[in-house]
Each structure stands twice: as structure tokens, then as C-alpha cells.
Design brief:
By secondary structure, the protein is an alpha+beta fold. The chain is 39% helix and 27% strand.
Length: 260
Amino acid sequence: MMLRPLRSALRSSALAALLLAVGIGVAQTPAAVQAQAGAASGPQATPALGKAEASAAATRILEAIKNRDANTRYSQFSDELKQTSSPSMVDSTLQTQPALLSWTILRVTPGLKNTTVEAILNTAAGQKDLFMVLNRQGQLLGQLYDASKQPSTKVALAFVNALSTGQFISARSFLSLDMQKELPPMALQAKWLNLQKETGNFVKVDKAVEAEQSKDGKLVLVNTEFNRLTDTLFVILNNKNQIIGVDFPNEPAKPQKVQH
């Protein structure tokens, strides 16, 4: 079932096309994502990382988070992630996160290209479920925190706020693993920067409203102020509150006259 368009015919058509492209009714498991990645790249003799290797690599990543060691954390990023980050940016993110106390690795799923590790984190703010996607070298390619119990508006706001501060790796962690495959950090950065060429620089987020909900997903409208105009970003989430579509408008609203 599609989410109904809620604004003008032009923006409605863009949203309908986006929904069709991302397949809003499908919430894929990490194993399914790995299978698709393997099918696209062709058969290989062995998986990227074995379970023991992936578990050890994940443990090293979590230890760096626990110790708030930004330099080590940055070194554990894949080259793709490093292109939009730096040790100082990692440090800034680590300082805003609740302290990591301990963790349990639940499941390791080797794929033909990458390996997914699922873990439960015990933090000062409670438990979190985390998925990590590791490459052949044990470096982080993508991550996804479970946000299924959070309000959809909170997830959408956190995503846009991360974009606005240049934290593209953090912003990408709100996307489904399948969408992360399609949208590397550099591509997400380019979309955000291209939007501001039309709207002017980001100023603030005014509000986020859940405009519609179905059994398959939710549509959140994030009203965002730039220095030339104010426009609305369409954020589409699946039924697990993972972002599966974002409409960065190609034709933002025109600047409005001052009303006296």
C-alpha cells in the first residue's frame, strides 16, 4: 500500500516515484541484504570474513566506542566512510553518545562480500540493538541502530540534524541497511550540498510531523528553514523506523514575500 501524497501535484508525483523506487512495503533482514549483495557481485569461494574474525573485529570497534577513542574509531572506518569524516568529527559524535558499558554479540552473518554483526549494547541510557556491516578487512562499512521504539518524528529530526552538522556517517546510520548500500556517505553529502545551492544555507529545523502511517511505513514531513527559503523534506520510514526514502526536492519552494 502506498502512502498518499499530501502536498502539491508536483511534489506528490515526486513522492510517488520515490515510494515506487524504494519499495516501501519491504523491510529486508541483514541476511537478505547480504544475499542481494552477493548475487550482484557473483559467486566467490569464501565469505569476506569468518564468524570468529568478524566477531573479533566488532569487539575492537565496540571497545573503541567504550573508550571514546576517536583516533582508533576513525581508523576502523572503511575508506568510503573516511571520505566524509575525520578524527575530530568522530570525537564530537562520541562525546554526545551515552557511555557504552558492555555488549553482547548475538549473531554474525557472513556474506559473499561483507559480513553483518548484530549486537546488544548496554549503555548509560539503556539497551540498544546495533547492526554493523564489515568489509573484508574488518572495517566498518555501515551501521544501524534499532529505533523501532522511538517516535518516527524523533528519528527524522535526528537524521536531518546530523545532515545539517555534516555528520553524514551518523545520518546514514538512520537509513536501512539496504538503502545504505545504495547511498554511500559521499552521495548523501552531495544531495545535501546540492539542495543548499537552491535553498541557501541551512538555518534550523522548525518542526517534524508524522503526516501518514500505514502497516508498511510512515511519512514524516520535516519543515526546514534555510537562509533563502523554508521547505519541507519528505522522510519515509519502514515499520521498524528505518529510513527507506528521502525526498530532497529538485525544485524547492520559491522565496516568499515579507508579510506586514
